[in-house]
Design goal:
The chain has one domain: archaeoglobus fulgidus dsm 4304 superfamily (archaeoglobus fulgidus dsm 4304 fold, 2-Layer Sandwich), CATH 3.30.2170.10. 33% of the residues lie in helices and 32% in strands. Helix 1 runs parallel beside helix 2 and helix 3 runs antiparallel to helix 4.
Length: 186
């Protein structure tokens, strides 16, 4: 693995469910190591089913440069869940979905059943198919923090090595952290 691996990190922009606006921005930030190189974006439907295809498109548009795909969880725009297997299969790039806390599967399942009583199984399947939720410690400028992740196309030890190279100021990798910050201003 290179000292400055090239990643694209995704997060969604802030949105309000109580408005008539039915889309939000999907923000992608490409970093070489911890240095931001480029920002890409597209619209996704709030509570929709298009985040997977939009991530695939944005990665393909930048595939010459990107080595790894990172996401801030597997949910965007409310319950617009991504299929990690499809993203890995379609792009050929290892994907890591990062979260800062353990997922309460029962609570998520209950929320999906409540919000999507006739179609929740499809969304729930993406969570199950994401596979194991691994836990690791990240040593950053602020000390040691816990981080959780799902991954496809890369083993756990490689993920931990990658995270050591791309997490500095935060336990979130820089590409994801910057995408998160940009998403807050929309």
């Amino acid at each position: 693995m290179k000292d400055s691996p090239i990643t694209i990190g995704f997060d969604d922009a802030t949105f309000n469910l109580k408005t008539n606006i039915k889309t939000t921005q999907l923000i992608g930030v490409i970093c070489q190591g911890t240095r931001m190189v480029r920002v890409v974006r597209d619209n996704i439907k709030i509570d929709g089913d298009d985040a997977t295809e939009k991530i695939i498109k944005l990665v393909r548009d930048n595939e010459k440069h990107v080595q790894y795909v990172l996401t801030h969880t597997i949910t965007f725009g409310g319950f617009n869940l991504v299929n990690l297997t499809d993203i890995y299969t379609e792009t050929g790039k290892p994907i890591i979905a990062i979260t800062e806390r353990e997922v309460d599967f029962d609570s998520v399942e209950s929320a999906l059943k409540s919000k999507f009583p006739n179609t929740y199984e499809g969304k729930l399947r993406y969570i199950v198919e994401a596979g194991n939720l691994y836990e690791t410690d990240i040593n950053t400028a602020g000390g040691i923090s816990k981080l959780f992740f799902h991954c496809k196309g890369i083993n756990v030890k490689e993920v931990e090595l990658l995270l050591e190279k791309i997490c500095i100021d935060s336990k979130l990798p820089e590409s994801v952290r910057i995408a998160h910050l940009i998403g807050k201003i929309f």
